[in-house]
Structures are given as C-alpha cells and as structure tokens.
Amino acid sequence: MTGPALEMAHVLFMDIVAYSKLPMDQQCDRLAKLQEAVRNTATFARALRKDMLICLPTGDGMALVFFGDPASPVRCAVELSQALRQHPEIKLRMGIHTGPVYRVADINANRNVAGGGINVAQRVMDCGDAGHILVSRAVAETLVQLTAWSQFLQDLGNVEVKHGVLVHIYNLHTGEAGNPELPQKLRAAAAEPQLTDVPVTSPEGKPSTTTPKPTGSSLDPSVLDSVSRELASFIGPIAKMVVQLAAERCSSVDDLYSAVAVEIPSQNGRSRFLALKKRQA
Questions:
Q1: Are 137 and 149 in contact (CB under 8 A)?
Q2: 190-217 burial, b for 16+ CB within 10 Å, e for fewer?
Q3: Are strands 111-114 and 92-105 parallel, antiparallel or unpaired?
Q4: Residue 184: exposed, middle, or buried by beta-carbon count in 10 A (0-12, 13-18, 19+)?
Q5: CB 99 within 8 A of CB 116
Q6: How many whole angstroms separate alpha carbon 84 and alpha carbon 26?
Q7: 1 by DSSP, 3-state: which?
Q8: Fewer CB within 10 Å: C terminus or N terminus of the chain?
C-alpha cells in the first residue's frame, strides 16, 4: 500500500511558557496577541502568499511548517522575538528543526503535517526557557554556511529528550533576539561529559569560533547504505537523506535504527523495520 509522500520541511515550534498556569482570560489575550504578532512578521506573510507554509495551532502556541527556504523559520523567529518586545508579558520559547514530514488532513479536513520533522522541532523547543530560540544540528549546519547567521550560534551539545533520543542543540542569540542564558534543562547536565566536535570551517577555509560542526557519522558507510535501503521499503527514496541526517547524531547502529524508525507512519511498519537491525548485529 502506498502511503503519503515524505518531504523536507523547516519547522518553527513555539509555545507560551507556563501558559496553563494563567487565568483563562489572560490565556486568550496572550494567545491572540501572539497570533497577531506572528501574522505581522514579513517572513510569515511572504511564505503564506507563496503557499509555502502550513500553520498548526497547538493550544499554547503553534507550529509553523515552512517549505522551500530553510532559513525562513529562523528569520521568522527573530522577527517575532523582536516584535514581542512590545509584549513582555508573553514569555515565548521557540525551537527549529529541518526534517521529513507527511502532508495529511486533520479531522476537519484541514491541511496538517505529521512525522519526525515536527516531532523533533517540538523536542528542541522543550529544551528552552522563555526567550530562547534553539535550533537542531540539521538547522545549524545550514546556518553556518550563511554569514548572516553563523556568528550567532552557540553549541549547547547533546541533550536527551523524550524516549531517550539524543538531539544536538544550538542556541541562536543575535543580541536583539533570543536568550543568551544556558537553558535550565541543560544546567544540571553541564558538568557531564559532552561529545567533542571539530570546529566548522567556513567556505573561505577559516574555522568558526562560535559553531562546532560534526565531522559526519562514525558508523560504517556500508551499514548506512544497508539501513537506507531497508528504510526505503517503508518510506521511499527520501530514506537516504533521513539516514544521513540521523547518523550524524547516532553513535551506534541501535541508536540509528531507533532514530529513523520514527519516520515510519505505522506501528506495524516500525516494528518490522526495527526487527531488521538483527542483520547488522
């Protein structure tokens, strides 16, 4: 049976910190102000006109799923952070990730998306506090190639999120947007050993002083090819890109299988795929 096609999306996930603790009238007021501020950003308006954006309400915030330009969610986050200076009562945190998603319809037949791309964006956001703009390694590796953004990235290392998955997080702080402080979730783990990366080399060959870059996967390329072929039977040709992205944050074959299995839409399919890793043992 043919399932929905996977495609790469650039996701900005945001929520209002401590929203559930607010009185109901304040919840409505702050959410309405947040929605208005988002609609007024230039990046949001441009993507909407080009039909390159899907907006998903989440109760205490929203997810903006951009297609096409990978820098769109970053620009939108910075524009929004600056706009919310007029509303200091809105304590917003944001997370950004690039990853595969499915376009689906919700119960009301409205456009929606599902998949690892949006799930990881939420996990990245969950690591932050009010004011933070956190991005995943997949996003950072794009931004470091752009002079306008590379100088504003701070490597926060690997963070364990839901289901024990490790996500490499970077903090984006421009001086006018973002929060330069270490997130509370990371403070407790600050003294623990972190994986060491090699500094990113800019297009001119000069090392970046702010943004480490992974050197690629330590896993055997033949294993990556094998896993890509196995995954492709469940999600199609995008499997190769999914495996390449996941391999950069995985230190073992078991980790790799677990990381990419989330892209398979059915539980039965995930179980059958995970059973294949015995071949790599």
A1: no
A2: eeeeeeebeebeeeeeeebeebbbbeeb
A3: antiparallel
A4: exposed
A5: yes
A6: 16
A7: coil
A8: N
Residue percentage of the chain with pLDDT more than 70? 85
133-136/92-105 β-pairing:
parallel
Which of 6, 95, 4 is CA-nearest to residue 58? 95
Q: How far apart are CA 211 and CA 137, in angstroms?
A: 10
Which of the residue ranges 1-5, 63-67, 141-145, 155-159 would you say has the lowest mean pLDDT? 1-5
Q: How far apart are CA 122 and CA 182, in angstroms?
A: 18
First-to-last CA distance in the chain? Answer: 29
pLDDT at 212: 44
E-strand stretches of 165-246 = 166-172, 198-201, 207-213
Instruction: Please tell me what DSSP assigns to residue 55.
Output: E
Q: What is the pLDDT of residues 164-206, one digit of tens each?
A: 788 899 999 998 899 999 999 888 766 555 544 444 444 444 3
The position carrying tokens 């060959």 is 205
> Mind listing the pLDDT tens digit for each residue in 172-183?
999 889 999 999
Angle, helices 42-49 vs 72-83, to 10°: value is 140
Confidence of residue 53 (pLDDT cuts 50, 70, 90): very high
Please give the Cα distance from 180 to 204 (Å, whole number): 28
CB under 8 Å to 22, separation ≥6 — which residues? 30
Query: What are residue 96's phi and psi, to 5 degrees?
Result: -130, 135
Distance of CA 171 to the CA centre of its chain: 12
> Residues of 36-58 as b/e, b for ≥16 C-beta within 10 angstroms?
ebbeebebbeebeeeebbbbbee
